[in-house]
Amino acid sequence: MALLSLFTCAKLFAVDTVYVVNGSLPNVIAIENITWRNSATQELVQWDQPSKSILNESIEANIVLIHNSSFDQGYIWSFPKLGRLDVYIRDTVLTTGSLLGLNERSQPSSNNAIRVQLYRGDTVFVKLVMQIGYSVYFPKGEKIFLQTRYAFEESDRKRLFWQGIFLGVIFVMALYNFLIWWAVRDHSFFHYVVSIVSIGLYFSFYYGFGIEYLWPNSPRWDTFSYTLLVPATGIARLLFTRAYLHVINLHPLLQKLWYMLLWLSGSMFLVGLGGYIFDIDYLSSLIDLIGITGTFILVYMLVGGFYAFYVKKYRPAKYFIWANLVLVIGAILFILKEMHLIQDNYFTRYIVQYGVMIQVLVFALGLASRLNQTQEELTKETLEKERLAVEIEREKKEMSERQNEELQKQVEKQTWILLDQNKRLAETIKNLRDSQNQLAELNKVKDKLFSIISHDLRNPLATMQSFLKLITEHHEKLSGEDRVKLMKEAQDSLDHVNQLLYNVLQWSKSQMQLLEFRPELIDVRLALEKGRRLLHLQSQLKQIEIHIEVPASLQVFADKDMLDFMIRNILNNAIKFSRKGGKIILQGFESDTEISICCKDEGIGMDEKTLEQIEKSMLARSERGTSKERGTGLGILIVKEFMEKHRGSIAIESKIGFGTDLYLIFKK
Fold first, then answer.
1. Are 321 and 289 contacting, i.e. CB atoms less than 8 angstroms apart?
2. Over the chain, what is the mean pLDDT?
3. Which residues are bridge partners to 2 per DSSP?
4. CA distance 326 to 308
5. In contact, 289 and 338? CB cutoff 8 Å
6. Are 74 and 117 in contact (CB under 8 A)?
7. Which residues, 6 or more positions from 130, have their beta carbon under 8 angstroms from its beta carbon?
8. I want to staple 511 with a disulfide (CB 3.0 to 4.6 A). Which of 234, 276, 445, 651 is the partner?
9. By the 8 A CB rule, do 205 and 225 touch?
10. How far apart are CA 293 and CA 299, in angstroms?
């Protein structure tokens, strides 16, 4: 019944096109085969047989949109460039068109577009009433495009971003060359500034920046601007080519072609200006002629560059060639696309802009090269005049000239001797500076070495000294079992000191690039057990429990000596800053990309300033341990250096009064 009602309404409203919009609509879709009729006669419009009378007539099409979707959706209709379009939908008239100011359009955009909201299960009757206005807006086809609001806005953002960057580069380079022209007053720079400003204004018009930002209330100027901007660009390019390549001195044929192209560009500029002033419509033919002439100008520039460089051996012409090569190819493709002779795609649309970018960048070098060559020629002319003056003077004072020549030779000889001595002196100074830097580095290593020795050996030696003092001074008061126990503890402490000294020496070698980095697969549990065993005495004195939680199969690819040093250091710090009777947990775990070793304590923690100093590899201020143990604050920085050798990192989580979690993170 609903379908029957739809067809009844379609017949009543003379609907020729029914289009179903479903929920799976892609970002952009073309609505084709739309039937357009003359509003007055209701005769079908034949787009392949255009007539001038149709430009000022009203053309209409009736469409039914069936929104076959389970949700509401906002859409943007984009139409070909045309004079004016009125869209009648739900008792509302939405208006757009290239001959309307930006504020007069329902959708304030450079595109001929309207915004429509379709509700789920909606059936909408739409009437389109079009007025072409000018021949340039005569549709090349009857397609209109429907896309979601999100897709339209995303596309518009990309347009603003990329074309904004392109136009920004164009006008920055224009300002740069204008300042150079202002400084040197070389006409080449001025003509080039005019050409790139013109091309920038053209692309502003082409991508909608003109009607959106530069002349939003001048739609007729936006329509005619192509016929003025492009010829102006061609004139500026011809003037620039003449000044840059010295066309007059190249070849008579090139000079004649130059005048002919200049006359054509000037004529088309005047014709376009007259059409704009008197509102005469010959835009379609004029635009094609302007495009063809512009192509010939670009080809002429390229040919002139090749001739100047390869025949006349004019060095700055090589920049001229490279600057125009991509631009000529891109402009030809772009013009053919605009004339609808080839397909519109990314390459044909944007290669011309890449060519413009290359041109402005290369010409910046080319103009500098030309300026340098001009200065060289002026210098040569000055030197030639001076040479002639010297020749005349030589004829008058021959003897004096020979003496001057001899003196000049002596001066040159002495100059070369001085230059050689200066070179040797500079090399000597460089060597001395290198030696000074090496000595400074060695001095830093020495200072660090002494600090490490103080940090890692002082406490164990003091402990061993205490044991030996007890044994020697109070042996008569100790039982045999106590003496054996103390001697064993002293021996363990001595072994520990010996091992620490070995590791300190190994670190000093690494600082002086003498230590080989030899990584291998190491069992993490065994490494942690070894660290716990070596620091058993310190933990026992403070009644601290050390637990190890590591999977049995966990292995890490590391240097054995460096890993032992790092484990001892972080465990020693955990013991130092843990309270008596506390607990320390040594953990090992892995992820897809990393293997981590963690030391968790319940000690006094670190403040933010200390963490920041460790993060910046600064020597932190030494803090006393919970049993008044002393340190240098350097140990953790050594751990950080060793982890950098492993291409790993450390991470610290700490809070005052709640302990510290320190992670050694190795990449797989």
1. no
2. 81
3. none
4. 19
5. no
6. yes
7. 36, 58, 59, 60, 61, 82, 83, 84, 85, 86
8. 445
9. yes
10. 10
